[in-house]
């Protein structure tokens, strides 16, 4: 039984093209910084944190320039002028570590290689290391750390490969008596420093992205909450509008029977009005089915209004919250000429405000006032601070209540003012306009309930 032959090996040109592509990416990483020339810690909240990188690079430069010059002249016998030039070239670019570490590498790395070639022409001492001097090696590690904190993995790999390759080439061309231990030591220590710097940078990037995602999620959550509140308000207002449309339908259908002697054109007009009202009711029901969540049914009870505020307050008092209600006399028996949307909004605002008091300040004394003044319906809910033995049921609410209040007031064309009080309580004040026919003269305060 013969076995099927193995697949053909990958073509050589495919491997070569992949290798060329990787080399191009490494070269691009070495020649293009992955970040703008903004200083490290530029976004720190405190000024001393923003100045810290500059202090560090100034200290490094002030330390390594004289140390490098001294080592080159005393241990390697390099002439003073040449040692000064090499020391400045190898250490002065450390000033760029705070904002342009990759550009600093392009200066320090060739300067280190040039210094190694210069040292070949000078006698070798017993304790001299080559090709990298001790101060040059330490300064280069600081450079690699700065690169690890700012550059991408591709750039770090390219920098490490260039460093290791330069050390290997210098090791091969060095005389046998040369101590080339630093050629192997720098790639090992450099790899450790690059890994540490890269890990810190990636952790910082992950933290920043997480904070941005949390900000986006919070904005989306607020938008979703707003849409949910608007949908809930739309479902409630559907019942109000449907009631009026039903009245129109009944009146239009019964008009020919209630009014005798109607001409045929008038009868047809009433029939057309009734048909249009029924069609509008059907469209509203279909719209409501879209707004209603899956699996939920419509509320069959009539929507509450000002006539049920007393029941709401009594239920809240039975729940343990001391509440006092001040309801204008002309509103105590019912909303009268108050528009249904304002009537429903006033009830819901008081309901949400009392619910917030129960959640955040249980046991706090609360006053509810509903009055008509200057053509507006004024709803005021004020609670004092919670008693000390009591603890809030929620320390940080979702904000649904305030969102719903704002949307209801905006729907009626009114204004809403909410905020904490100096004594630790909270105030909710809504002002909703009334049509001229629905603005009775406000009675004296002594007649309020």
Automatic annotation (TrEMBL):
The chain crosses the membrane at residues 51-72, 78-97, 104-123, 129-149, 156-174, 180-200. GO terms for molecular function: ATP binding; phosphorelay sensor kinase activity; protein dimerization activity. It catalyses: ATP + protein L-histidine = ADP + protein N-phospho-L-histidine. The keyword Protease does not apply. Residues 433-449 have a biased composition (Pro residues). It comes from Streptomyces griseus subsp. griseus (strain JCM 4626 / CBS 651.72 / NBRC 13350 / KCC S-0626 / ISP 5235). Residues 413-449 are annotated as: Disordered. Residues 229-294 form the Signal transduction histidine kinase subgroup 3 dimerisation and phosphoacceptor domain. GO terms for cellular component: membrane. Its EC number is 2.7.13.3. Residues 345-435 form the Histidine kinase/HSP90-like ATPase domain. The keyword Phosphoprotein applies. This is histidine kinase. InterPro entries: HATPase_C_sf, HATPase_dom, Sensor_HK_TwoCompSys, Sig_transdc_His_kin_sub3_dim/P. Keywords: ATP-binding, Kinase, Membrane, Nucleotide-binding, Phosphoprotein, Transferase, Transmembrane, Transmembrane helix, Two-component regulatory system.
């Amino acid at each position: 039984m013969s076995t099927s032959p193995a697949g053909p090996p990958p073509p050589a040109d495919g491997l070569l093209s992949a290798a060329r592509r990787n080399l191009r990416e490494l070269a691009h990483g070495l020649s293009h910084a992955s970040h703008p020339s903004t200083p490290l810690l530029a976004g720190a909240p405190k000024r001393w944190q923003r100045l810290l990188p500059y202090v560090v690079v100034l200290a490094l430069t002030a330390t390594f320039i004289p140390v490098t010059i001294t080592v080159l002249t005393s241990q390697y016998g390099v002439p003073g002028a040449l040692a000064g030039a090499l020391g400045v070239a190898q250490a002065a670019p450390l000033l760029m570590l705070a904002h342009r570490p990759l550009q600093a590498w392009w200066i320090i790395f060739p300067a280190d290689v040039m210094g190694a070639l210069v040292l070949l022409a000078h006698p070798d001492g017993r304790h001299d290391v080559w090709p990298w001097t001790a101060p040059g090696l330490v300064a280069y590690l600081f450079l690699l750390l700065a690169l690890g904190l700012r550059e991408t993995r591709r750039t770090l790999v390219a920098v490490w490969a260039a460093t290791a390759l330069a050390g290997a080439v210098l090791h091969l061309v060095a005389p046998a008596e040369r101590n080339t231990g630093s050629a192997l030591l720098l790639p090992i220590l450099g790899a450790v420093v690059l890994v540490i710097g890269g890990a810190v940078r990636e952790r910082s990037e992950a933290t920043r992205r997480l904070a941005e995602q949390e900000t986006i999620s919070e904005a989306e959550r607020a938008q979703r909450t707003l849409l949910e509140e608007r949908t809930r308000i739309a479902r409630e207002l559907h019942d109000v509008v449907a009631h009026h449309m039903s009245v129109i339908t009944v009146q239009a259908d019964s008009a020919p029977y209630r009014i005798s002697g109607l001409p045929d054109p008038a009868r047809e007009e009433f029939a057309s009005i009734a048909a249009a009202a029924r069609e509008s009711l059907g469209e509203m029901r279909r719209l409501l089915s879209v707004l209603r969540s899956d699996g939920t049914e419509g509320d069959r009870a009539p929507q509450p209004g000002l006539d049920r505020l007393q029941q709401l307050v009594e239920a809240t008092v039975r729940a343990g919250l001391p509440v006092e209600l001040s309801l204008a006399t002309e509103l105590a028996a019912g909303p009268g000429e108050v528009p249904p949307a304002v009537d429903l909004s006033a009830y819901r605002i008081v309901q949400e405000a009392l619910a917030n008091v129960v959640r955040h300040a249980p046991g706090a004394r609360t006053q509810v006032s509903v009055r008509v003044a200057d053509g507006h319906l004024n709803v005021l809910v004020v609670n004092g601070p919670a008693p000390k033995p009591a603890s809030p049921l929620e320390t940080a609410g979702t904000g649904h209540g305030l969102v719903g209040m704002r949307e209801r007031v905006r729907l009626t064309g009114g204004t809403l003012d909410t905020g904490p009080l100096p004594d630790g309580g909270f105030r909710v004040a809504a002002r909703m306009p009334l049509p001229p026919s629905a603005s009775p003269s406000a009675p004296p305060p002594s007649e309020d309930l």
